[in-house]
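Quick log. Single chain, no ligands specified.
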Amino acid sequence: MVKTYLTLALYVLFHYGLMAQDFAFGSLTSEDLKLAKNDLDSFSNAAVLNEYGRASMVYNDTRGYTELVVDYHVRIKLFNRDGYKHADIVLPAYKDESGERADVLSDIKAVTINIVDGRIVSIPLDKGQVYKENATKYLTYTKFTFPNLQDGSIIEYSYRLVSPHIFNFKTWHLQDDIPKINSTFEAIIPGMYTYNVILRGPYPLTTQDGKIARGAFRIAGRDIDCSHMIYGMRDIPAFVVEDYMTASSNFKSAIYFELSDMYRLNGSNIKITKEWRDVDRELVTNPDFGGQIKRDHLFKSLLPELLNDVPDDLGKAKALYRHVQKNIKWNRYLGKYSENGVKHALERGSGNVGDINLTLIAGLRAAGLDAEAVILSTRDNGVVNNVHPVLSDFNYVVAKVSIDDRDYLLDATDPLLPFGLLPLHCINGKARVIPLKEPSYWIEPTSSLRSTTQYTLTGELLPDGTLNGQLMTHSHGYAALHKRRELANFNTIEDYIDHVDERTVGFDIVKGEIIGTENMDEPLVERYEVAMKLYDQLDDAAFFFNPFFLNRMGKNPFNLDERTYPVDMGAAREDRVQLTIKLPGTYVLVSGPDDYNMALENKGGRYLTQIKLADDTLTFSQLLALSQAIYPPESYFSLKEFFSRIIQQEKIDIVLRKTETR
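-> predicted structure:
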């Protein structure tokens, strides 16, 4: 992720350049009409021809507060039916907890423009087709769909938003999942407000201009000068989502505003962007955060039974962790604050993330352990601003316990998580530790375990071409967690084994068992008796089969021509396969995959294969090791080639020929 801090201040000498203006509604250019799908890229089914936004501030004398006024206008071309989804418009409007301060949408104007028999035909949106949907008590969607769509349609709409929520001013999203020819944004900000302005993403602005707008904001009968800034970008590529990434908002080009200071008319300053010491005090004294951590007395009656005969601190931590995991069910709501409180969570056995993990911290502290809260942002929520403390960036809390000079991060919301392993959605850059009595500090959570799977098949090939054998699969870390979550979806282990048998191509499961379903700290072991038909006519002089039937990759997860964001796998990975097959006679190896030893640059990973035939026993081994959790964008092509070569290797069969008997 690339961040650039832009300058936005009133008393800076701006040069006077070309100032932006909105484009005329419904007036198409020849370039708009001529633009075709492949003029931009080979995969986008629509494109933004032009986009304009203008945000300014007005003081509402009736309500007694400043409001943000945003005018938005966009023109989009739909190349084919797959692009029609961009004609389904959803506009959000928010309100605060009181319901008194709410966004207001107005002046919605929309038209579909088609070329019919060489003529331009405009079909305006029927206002009766605009409807509202209450998503939550704080969020309402205004929705509409453009009429009369056809391949090549141009859709255009505009609206005005008046909002009392001025903290983030207006985030301007320069990049989207379709390409944009042009995107321009005007920001007119009174001198009494100071914002931190951040350009996020890999692409530079093509326009950044500004001037002082004299007296453009009026409050209490006084005219206040404003900074009038223009930000623009042209020929913006589509952002393509690919596997192994965090929230796309982390990497799309966009301009973010964050209110840092306000100045009263008398010249006094109100500092909005706080220091961490202010945030620490706010969290520690908050009854739904620090107040809940301090409720360790609620565990006094539980501890004698829970910790009976537990010899050491690590055992105590594990016992408390398991108790909270098993007895408090997550209600699927996120949050860094407690929703109902530790007492309620213990008595009712349910709660949000804050309820569960703050309860865990209170319990650990009751046992005399060094436990603290850690606030973070989940992968879908985006990374946090580590320059200025912005509490709204954080949407999750976990526990940290320090034992014998080692720190363990714990999340008790998932009963399948082993001790010390955070779920992948919590591995997302920096997190902030909030001690009750000391200053807070940054940590960067990483996976404490690599994701490891080992497949071992030992079998005998019968004269009829059937391979009978035993398949053992050992899963550790996230691989084990993934399988345990799969298991949880079935009523019995037998149902799960039947499901594995149905989805497995190439062999049948005769019977099976699974070991390690109760102890999450142990590997999950699957043991199956399997049968597979390798060949029908073993009486022939030669036969062949493909040895990559276990853990076959099949498809390259990396297919972009360019990736501007990291490959984030969350954890290092290691997969091993070992086949040992007794043959019905003596054979020679005619051909097969070459013994392979391929390495990624900078010790980023390895891929090994090896085949041996000794007497009547064939062995095949394979190792795929990815030693890094995150690979930078400059390693993308190496990874892409690495996986491409693996897939080519997987296509090669083993050919065996029976030797002459004497």
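The chain has ten helices and 36 strands.
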